Amino acid sequence: MQTDSNAPSVYAAFSQSCTLYPNHPFLHVVDSVAQRYDIDSGDITYAEAQAIVEALIEHYCAAGYGASHRVGLMLDNRPAFIFHWFALNALSASVVPINSELGADEQAYLLDAAETCLLIYADEHAMQAKSAIRKMSRPIAMIDVGANASAVIPHAPKNDSTLLPIAADSECAILFTSGSTGQPKGCLLSNEYFLEMGRWYRRIGGLCSLSLGSERLITPLPLTHMNAMGTSLMAMVMTGGCIVQLDRFHPKSWWQSVYESRATVMHYLGVMPAMLLQLEPTNVEEKLAIKFGFGAGVNPAHHAAFEARFGFPLVEAWAMTETGTAACVIANREPRHVGQSCFGKPDPAMVEHRLVDEAGSDVERGDTGELLVRAAGQNARKAFFSGYHHNDAETDKAWRGGWWHTGDVVRELADGSLCFVDRRKNIIRRSGENIAALEVEAVLSRHPAIASLAVTPVPDEIRGEEVMACVVLNDVDAVNEHTALDMFQHCMASLAYFKTPGYIAFVSALPLTATQKPKRNEIKELAKSFLDGPVEAVVLFDLRDQKRKKIT
Question: Where are the domains of the chain?
Fold first, then answer.
């Protein structure tokens, strides 16, 4: 049996699974997570989780929480995040996940922008939480999750909407975009948005088939992002499966955690395969029960090598916070075109798509274009996000012409499969040529001296823009012109001359997001500053004179 697809809310879907699978594990806490968060390790059954959630519902209800109340959650990847979310959702209150790794100013902005009335935080973040609240435009109540919740939950602000009934289109959460082109925008997410994630995962089949009541999905991704909060968690809720939520990705202990948790599915970040391939083989690798990995952004050079070594497919998918899985495309069936950044064929019964040039005209198959998507059928926005909070102008701009403009540059293969090229804003325009930063990164990442890197455009008086590679080396003693030239020649062997880096900057570290992705906008601004003169801890090599057309 499976959870009813017509459940009106996240909590209702969870409650139904508690009835169907009371003694099945819902959460598994590995030993390292238990130690990190000072909680008990092992399985938590659906019945046990339900008892915790029901107790929280009682306390929140007594304090007057309901529709139109928004509560911030600064709980990292603790089980408490899930329990408090479900309890608040049962009352039609909305949650606002807050990344504890952000600065107090950033956290204050999110709490203010979302108009939260309460912040739930882990005791280790007490000073940070208090600092963030002091910086807000108005004070809000706060609760230490380690305290006795029944004794400290303050009364909610009164409003006329508190007792509104919960529905599929009711607001469930606000997740903020990265803000790479300005202040983060708050994505309004409904119950339907999250429920569709579970339904979609449950039905897609192919290499990603899920068995009811038996899967154990391990993920290191943060619950402040849609993949962990929505895709993986709702997939398990709506199939009676078990979430193995790690605190973060720990390469050296990863396979041990996978083995000991008896995980059958893993969710991955694009950087994970490369790091795992660098580890020495262990006998644990031969005992894994993983059926498939689900993720995005694996380096094309590592994709086949990973699958050959570890024995299961890495299934690439595409989605955005704004689209959820309503427009998700996934390479869960062959041919997957491994090594070509392929993320599968759109299902025409679920999603319509176009690839357009900068003028908005459809491109020929094989050419690159921006991906536009919408839900198939009469409601183009079905199960998408509900819009940007207090920002209708940006919502309408992204939906112009009745299509969601993704900002992603994609190429369509002859069989209809889509291959990711880059974010449009990461395309480098040099002397009329479009260069994908990710393509250059994929080649450079194969150089053995490189630990991590990011490629970005920098201004050029003659060519408009030039390619700069910001590189962190494995060995700081290798910071010299010989290494830079070797990397340049490495690129020249595989790329058109104009795509090779005109500058190589050796840096000590790169600014990264919570999911270990480069902060592109910040890196772009830093790279510009490198051209203005010497920067401490940065060694820059100008290789523009080395760029020459290859003579054949």
Answer: 431-546
CA-CA distance, 548 to 457, in Å (whole number)? 19
Q: pTM here? A: 0.85
Domain covering 431-546, topology: GMP Synthetase; Chain A, domain 3 (3.30.300)
CB 107 within 8 A of CB 101: no
| Contact between residue 46 and residue 21 where contact means Cβ atoms under 8 Å apart | yes
pLDDT digits (tens, 9 = 90+) for 324-351: 999 999 999 999 999 999 999 999 999 9
How far apart CA 443 and CA 301 sit, in angstroms, is 8
The answer to whether 155 touches 124, Cβ cutoff 8 Å, is no
pLDDT digits (tens, 9 = 90+) for 92-144: 999 999 999 888 888 999 999 999 999 999 999 999 999 999 999 998 999 99
Place of tokens 């299961």: 312
Q: How far apart are CA 482 and CA 478, in angstroms?
A: 8
Is residue 275 classed exposed, middle or buried when 0-12, 13-18 and 19+ CB atoms within 10 A define those classes? middle
Helical packing angle, 437-444 and 481-492, nearest 10°? 110
d(Cα 443, Cα 500) in Å, to the nearest integer? 10
Q: What does DSSP say about strands 450-460 and 25-29: parallel, antiparallel, or unpaired?
A: unpaired
Please report, as a single letter, which amino acid is at residue 150: S
**Matching residue, tokens 């950033």:** 106
Rounded Cα gap, residues 324 and 406, in angstroms: 12
Statement: residue 15 has pLDDT above 80: yes
Beta partners for residue 142, in sequence order: 119
- What DSSP string describes 361-400? PBPPTTSEEEEEEEESSS-TTTTS--EETT-HHHHHHHTG
